[in-house]
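Structure ticket #2291
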Amino acid sequence: MKDVRTEVGVVPQSPQVEQTAVQAEEQPAPAAATAVRRRVVLVTGAAGLVGSHTCRELARRGWTIRAIVRSPTKAEQRLAGIPLQIVLGDLRSSDTVRAAVRGVDAIVHLAAIAIERRDETYEDVNTGATIALVEAARAEGVRRFVHMSQNGSSSASPYRFLRSKGAAQDAVMASDLAWTVLRPSVIFGPEDEFVTVLARLVRLSPLVYPLPGGGTARFQPVFVDDVARVIALALDRPNSVRQTYQMGGPAALTLRQMIERVLLAMHTRRVLIPAPVFLLRPVIAAAQHVLPRPPVTTSLLDLLAIDNTVGDSSVWATFGLVPVPFAPEELTYLRNITARDAWNAMW
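Resolution: structure written out below.
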């Protein structure tokens, strides 16, 4: 793998982040806060949805943040106003990973892909990069490792995305690191990669909206700021070491119910029409070959056959949080999406 040059920069201080969940131990004691400020955490996938919100939460708690990103443009957009150090590079480069890990006290590994590109496969990015990061952490003596896995992930899964995430999770849990693994259902929030796609398809589907498989697939959407808070709290809690936490919101919803809430949030209407998966598959496969950034792929379509709900919601009591519901009033960020935005997002 070709080495990627590392560049460092500083992003200015951010304003106070508005709280969206009730947490019993939200503010650390002054003495503890002083100690936290001296610690350095490496965040991978920092310019992604969970990454940017996690960086804000960690900065608010006094951590010194080193953020690995691949796109400086995306980093400027997502991380503006957060005090952190930017490392520009690719996790598939051993030199980049080793340099980024050196001198940190903890690692929060969030980088992953849900849609493959020509030069990015599930096996390379989701699995290979995780294994390289674990090896670099061990070589540099970094013990604390918080890993973002996926609900339903398993190295024995017949679905390549879930299999790649499962193999990555296995590598983390088989290591001698002080790991914590998080397994969320679908995550929502401004600039998310699932609910926003549903909203874009609403704009591109006048009058009617096709429901894959009749919209019976089940999810348990969890709010991104709640995920970020769990990550930050887990770093400071010794009893979270070598623990795995499932993460889902307060209610399990079908895809139909989620889209109904999306429509309410967008102040618009569509007739919801069941669409058999076998009829949608050739259409989505064709779109994959034509569009540089397809909103949906056949691999993601296949995942609708998996129940993406969470059986154990004890994580919220464990960390003293009340999760934000997937409700229209929490989805107002979708109203600003236009048909032009939806069209441009695919190219």
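Closing remark: The radius of gyration is 20 Å.
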